[in-house]
Amino acid sequence: MARLRTRVFRAARARWTRSTKGMTLGVRALAIDADGRVLLVRHAYTSGWHLPGGGVEIGETAEAAAIRELVEEAGVVAEGRPSLLGLHFNVAFGGRDHVALFRFERFSKGPQPKPNSEIAEIGWFAPDALPEGATPATRRRLAEALEGAEADGRW
């Protein structure tokens, strides 16, 4: 029941944000470990595997938000600054959302958080063996970052 309330609350908050804000800014983090595996998370409130990320808070830089989200969602601690790979328009989120994608080259893996109301699973995957349910946007971002595919500016 608590999980259902959380999902309903998040959906209502997202609708309110889309209808009242001029623009929203989110971040996603691309972390690749020493074995070449990419970090993905599966949220409890939406389907699919995604790059870790979330919204930029008031007074927070996009870079700081990406660093924070890595720790909160996966227990990964950045060592050094990430590089900005791109800023993408997310038409699926009300037509006013943009997502900044950051690549993390150096980081340490802290204790992995236990599944909770936000994150159901965390995993490290070879780019050529992504889990079933990896979202199309996740697959596009990986193709752009790792294979040189051309980005079109849309999430």
Tally of strands: 9
* Rg for CA atoms: 15 Å
Helix content: 25-40%
- Series of secondary-structure elements, N-terminal to C-terminal: HEEEEHEEEEEH
Task: Give structural notes.
The model has no long low-confidence stretch (mean pLDDT 91). A hairpin with a 5-residue loop joins strand 2 and strand 3 (49-50). This protein has helices at residues 2-20, 62-74, 136-147; strands at residues 24-31, 38-43, 49-50, 53-55, 76-78, 83-90, 97-104, 107-109, 119-125. It is α+β, with helices and mostly antiparallel strands. The longest helix has 19 residues, at 2-20. It has a single domain (2-147), classed as Nucleoside Triphosphate Pyrophosphohydrolase (Alpha-Beta Complex). A four-stranded mixed beta sheet has the order 4-1-7-6, sandwiched between helices. Strands 3-2-9 form a three-stranded antiparallel beta sheet, with no helix packed on it. A two-stranded antiparallel ribbon has the order 5-8. It is globular and about 40 Å long. The protein has three helices and nine strands.
Layout of strands and helices, then pairs:
Blueprint: H1 2-20, E1 24-31, E2 38-43, E3 49-50, E4 53-55, H2 62-74, E5 76-78, E6 83-90, E7 97-104, E8 107-109, E9 119-125, H3 136-147
Parallel strand pairs: 1-7
Antiparallel strand pairs: 1-4, 2-3, 2-9, 5-8, 6-7
